[in-house]
Each structure stands twice: as C-alpha cells, then as structure tokens.
Design goal:
Layout: E1 8-17, E2 22-25, H1 28-33, E3 46-49, H2 57-63, E4 71-76, E5 90-94, H3 96-100, E6 110-113, E7 116-123, E8 127-131, E9 141-151, H4 156-159
C-alpha cells in the first residue's frame, strides 16, 4: 500500500538546515541531543492527512508513493516549505503598545500579538518593527521522513 492524496499517514521526521543542523524532529532523544528539545511538546510519530495542508507542501509531495517502513531524504526549497519572506509581514507598532502591556521590547525576542507570533526585528524610540514571517521562511530545508502507517482516506478529487 502506497501513500496517496487523502490518506492519513503516521510518520517520523528530522528537519535540518543545509549545514546539517537539526531544527526540529519527532524523535525526543534526537531533539535533546541537538538542543532543540521543547519540554511542553509531546514527541513521537505524527498523524497527518496528505493533501489538505496539514504539513508543508514539499513534505506532502515527498510522501506520495511511499510505503510503510520506507525512509526518504528530501531537499525542499523555500517555495515547497515555508515560502519566501514577505515585506508585507513587517509591521511597525507604536512602542507604547509594549509599555501598556508592561513589556520592554528587545531585538530578537518573539512576542504573541492579536495577529499571531512575531519576532522583534528593530526597536526604535517611537516604534517597534515586528516580523510576522515564519522563522523558516526563505530557507532551504532537508527532511528525513519515515512512513510508519497508512490509513486510506479520500481521493485527491474529493479534496479539491
């Protein structure tokens, strides 16, 4: 049985940058070894429906045709991963917004806003420049993926 659009797939993965640095994984021990362990997270294989946007496009495409037990390494350009950074997602907010919340803005920090998570790119006297682009936008990513189980789902035509 091979993965097709609409199937629900159980898989493990390791995400790396081009230099080999691990940025994310479903394996707890590997996350700890590489300094990317997140205490609040539950590690282990993930279930996802292929073809509905639950995972990045390049990883979905890579899984099509794979069988349980099969492993594959794929290199994903930004367009198949988290896209290219958009200047439209850089927003300056008044510095007083941080003061009202009792926060001191610092470059490099991530903040939760009404519009989602943003990285503080620049702190000026009158405003704070926030970047709402995904942190992995613009990066080529390497994924090692292993399909563990497939549950047959709907056809691609039914997903469209």
């Amino acid at each position: 049985m091979k993965v097709e659009y609409g199937d629900i797939v159980l898989f493990n993965y390791v995400g790396k940058f081009e230099n080999g640095e691990v940025f994310d994984t479903s394996y707890e021990d590997l996350a700890r070894e590489n300094g990317v362990y997140v205490e609040e997270r539950e590690y282990g294989p993930l279930w996802a429906t292929v073809g509905v946007g639950e995972i990045i496009p390049g990883l979905e495409e890579a899984m099509i045709g794979m069988e349980p037990g099969e492993k594959k390494t794929v290199i994903l350009p930004p367009e198949k991963a988290y896209g290219m950074p958009s200047p439209d997602l850089l927003v300056t907010v008044p510095r007083e917004e941080f003061s009202k919340a009792g926060l001191e803005p610092r470059k490099g920090l991530y903040v939760m806003t009404d519009s989602g998570i943003a990285k503080i790119v620049e702190v000026k006297e009158d405003g704070v420049l926030l970047d709402f682009n995904h942190p992995l936008a613009g990066k080529t990513l390497i994924f090692e993926v292993e399909v563990l189980e497939i549950k047959k789902g709907t056809s691609k035509a039914e997903l469209d």
